[in-house]
């Protein structure tokens, strides 16, 4: 059997940093949504394990989250048969778009089918949480509020199809280094999360920029000052507002319609490493083909 999966990236409409736990993890209140930008993962039963990656430079060894997910599922299920995995990466790396977590989520969903394990989504999310805080969200997808250390998910109904342009400086930002620069006394403008959730549910795009905010932005912008230039470039190109995605370095611009977003993404492409018009989505990992 061969399964092909779509592993969608995410954006954060807000990251509110509420404090720090004694173990060093930050307490967060975030609103996340899947977007129309994805990696493709194929999984096929095989005599022995093989893995290849195309599209973007990420490790093709045991450090890759796909192989970590295979090892975890094997340990949880006791299945010993081999799997041939092929990953085609489109999601930029170290971009704040959760590419690695999306791939891990796709591997868990795919192996659940390939090995006919019948694990519930809750069980897959529990396993995914061991691979990374964003993995459970990537499995569920859509529009969600994530609290705690990012692992307490509340799915939110509605969530219009918003039009975005993603702009990424050539330099990426490591999530670990971004959190290292986080200071609780300089979080920038805090998001108004409750009002933001209402505006998102109702599809009131014009209200969103006055309600969103990302507490990781000041620290990431120190590591990569082009983040601030990317925000300015998006607003100059007609965005209603611009906000850093996750821990950066990608920045999103919110546009009134798809046509404007596509035109602006094209104009910005010549000066920036990655510029893409995308729409928000209501699903995370999906199975594209099964044979
Ligand atoms: P996040 O927003 O989840 O914090 P990110 O989008 O900023 O993460 P990723 O692209 O997921 O960053 O990857 C960060 C690092 O994880 C990479 O430098 C890479 O070495 C490692 N990694 C492991 N597996 C993968 C994978 N399948 N895809 C991308 N990166 C991976």
TrEMBL record:
Active site (UniProt): 10, 134
UniProt EC number: 2.7.1.148
Xref: InterPro entries: GHMP_kinase_C_dom, GHMP_kinase_C_sf, GHMP_kinase_N_dom, IspE, Ribosomal_Su5_D2-typ_SF, Ribsml_uS5_D2-typ_fold_subgr
Pfam families: GHMP_kinases_C, GHMP_kinases_N
UniProt keyword list: ATP-binding, Isoprene biosynthesis, Kinase, Nucleotide-binding, Transferase
Catalytic activity: 4-CDP-2-C-methyl-D-erythritol + ATP = 4-CDP-2-C-methyl-D-erythritol 2-phosphate + ADP + H(+)
Keyword Translocase on entry: no
Domain GHMP kinase C-terminal, residue spans: 208-271
Protein's pathway: Isoprenoid biosynthesis; isopentenyl diphosphate biosynthesis via DXP pathway; isopentenyl diphosphate from 1-deoxy-D-xylulose 5-phosphate: step 3/6
Statement: the UniProt record of this protein carries the keyword Transmembrane helix: no
Coiled coil location: none
Domain (GHMP kinase N-terminal): residue spans on this chain: 64-142
HAMAP family: IspE
PANTHER family in the cross-refs: 4-DIPHOSPHOCYTIDYL-2-C-METHYL-D-ERYTHRITOL KINASE, CHLOROPLASTIC
Family note: Belongs to the GHMP kinase family. IspE subfamily.
Summary of the function given for this chain in its UniProt record: Catalyzes the phosphorylation of the position 2 hydroxy group of 4-diphosphocytidyl-2C-methyl-D-erythritol.
Designated name of the protein: 4-diphosphocytidyl-2-C-methyl-D-erythritol kinase
Organism: Gehongia tenuis
């Amino acid at each position: 059997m061969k399964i092909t999966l779509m592993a969608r990236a995410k954006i954060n409409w807000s990251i509110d940093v509420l404090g720090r736990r004694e173990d060093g993890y930050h307490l967060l209140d975030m609103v996340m949504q899947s977007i129309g930008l994805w990696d493709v993962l194929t999984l096929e039963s095989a005599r022995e394990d093989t893995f290849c990656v195309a599209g973007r430079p990420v490790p093709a060894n045991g450090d890759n989250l796909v192989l970590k997910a295979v090892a975890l599922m094997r340990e949880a299920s006791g299945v010993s048969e081999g799997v041939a995995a092929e990953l085609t990466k489109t999601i930029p790396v170290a971009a704040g778009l959760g590419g690695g977590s999306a791939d891990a989520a796709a591997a868990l969903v795919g192996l659940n089918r390939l090995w006919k394990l019948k694990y519930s989504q809750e069980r897959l999310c529990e396993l995914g949480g061991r691979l990374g805080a964003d993995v459970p969200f990537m499995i569920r997808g859509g529009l969600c509020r994530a609290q705690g250390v990012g692992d307490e998910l509340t799915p939110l109904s509605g969530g219009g199809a918003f039009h975005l342009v993603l702009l990424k400086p050539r330099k990426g930002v490591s999530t670990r280094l971004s959190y290292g620069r986080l200071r609780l006394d300089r979080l920038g403008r805090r998001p108004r999360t409750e009002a933001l959730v209402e505006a998102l549910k109702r599809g009131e795009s014009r209200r969103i920029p006055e309600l969103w905010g990302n507490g990781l932005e000041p620290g990431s912008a120190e590591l990569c000052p082009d983040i601030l230039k990317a925000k300015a470039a998006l607003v100059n190109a007609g965005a209603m507002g611009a906000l850093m995605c996750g821990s950066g370095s990608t920045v999103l611009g919110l546009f009134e319609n798809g046509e404007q977003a596509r035109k602006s993404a094209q104009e910005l492409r010549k000066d920036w490493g990655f510029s893409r018009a995308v729409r928000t989505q209501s699903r995370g990992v999906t199975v594209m083909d099964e044979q």
